[in-house]
Fold:
Amino acid sequence: MNSLARFFRPLSPAGLWLGAAFLAVLLLLPLWAGSYVMTVATTVFYLALIGQSWNLMLGFAGLLSIGHALFVGIGAYTAAYLFAAVGLPPVVGVLPAIALAVLMGVLIGYLGFRFAIGGGYFALLTIAFAEFVRIVIDHVSWLGATEGFFLKVSSADRHGIDLVNLRGAPEMYYYLIMALALGALVLCRFLLRSRLGYYWQAIRDDAEAAEALGVNVLRYKMYAVIFSSGMAGVAGVFYAFYQNSLFPEIVFNIERSIEATLGSIVGGVGTLFGPIFGTFILTPLGEIVTEAIDLLKHWGVIDPQIKLDGLKLLIWSFIVVLIVLFKPKGLWPWVCSRLRLTRPEAEG
Amino acid sequence: MILSVSGLNLFYGDAQALDEVSLEVDAGDIVAVVGSNGAGKSSLIRTIAGIEKPRSGRIVYKDTDITGWPSHRVCNLGIGQVAEGRQIFAGLTVRENLEVGAYLERGRGKSAETMERVFAMFPILQERAEQQAGTLSGGEQQMLAIGRCLLGQPELIMFDEPSLGLAPTIVQEVFGIVERLNADGTPIVLVEQNVAVSLKMANRAYVLENGRIVLSGKGEELLEDDRVREAYLGL
Structure:
């Protein structure tokens, strides 16, 4: 109980109440929400989980990844393949999925840190690997190549709860991804206040000073990549069994990697709740834009022949520009101080 | 002898930063390394600390050959370093900065006691313990950097330009702290551009020029040396 109290200590009473209300609404969401809202809400938590994983690397340890789709995709393909080929249920398959995602992270991290490839060049390395793996899978026939890899679903699978095989009603997926995203939040909160987290922040603030102080910089950067890629791998397993179809050009698309960054940038890089807060703003906003366009086309305001697929990304980009210009630390720290959600001495 | 450096050669690519540098530190010493900008002073400290890898030469600390060791192992052996330019972790609080110093293997378990000592030495750090370190003044940041180093329980401390960019009164205070740490039994290696003060403090001193030791001797003797007076003191 003591540790629980400590866990919530940074929150002010107002923050606690608002957090509890927020959680209650989300827990009760399936009671009143239709399937569309449920899909959006599931996507929000899915992106929040990936955002949390990405934020761990950049926000905590100062390592920029623009290839996070790689870890998600590897997790997805691993668990899906093992399920389809040898019937390994995803509840077990998640372990090799994490292992392979982490292995990939360690490989990139080793190449990057061992040879002291800094900042932007490290980010390029992550993009390169994501592209490399996409092209490889494009040519691997037993993973479906460009045709895609599919998991069998029957209509009977759409009901009930089978957490072992990740088959069930939309509500099951929603509660599962919610639990995973909140679990990631708790894990990050714990890590950030551990020796590991302080070392990460020290490396982020001044890697040279950390080294001079006797911090094994290479090793602790590696730990950041390991935790981050493992979390992204878990998200990938969820994606595979939620979508039931995997296409290399969708899964490993750089757009996925950029999506992973946006929520955290809008919410606040380096904060704990920022990635969740950011995706809660961006994803519904993107949906509203898409809906509004459809509606305008329906009413004949916009010519239905015009393709406006990229508009959502354009608007997201515009928001990111605004955030970077006016609230570079993200919206969450600002909301926190305006609504006094946290105690003055604590942040995020 | 506590620390013995012999025949150290360091290269950055093709450029030679250290050329056959040898240096000795005895128990209780303050050893000053002086020289102009780019003479190789920081390179020498960084090589001893394990951050730069020398091409040749030997670094021996208390009968242990530490040449080529990674910096975290050198720190754990007891060689602390206060790096140039007050490198504090701006996003962490003052207390968290100190705790990061105490997380080092050899610092664990003794942190509470040492934290008391650091706070007694720098009362301003205790006052600002919960403040973000980035909000401290230059002098306070230097004190934090020194305090953080102490939490790693060093047996020997290397200071790299501790007076750089500080107001004259703060400079005096920092040098006073260096002398106090030495009086408490910690050997010190002091790299400084402030030649007059550091030579006065040092019982052994080396003058570094273009990566070479060109003069060495007792600090007071070097202060009287015509070449030093002309080149560094402008007398």
In short: Chain A is about 75% helix and 0% strand.
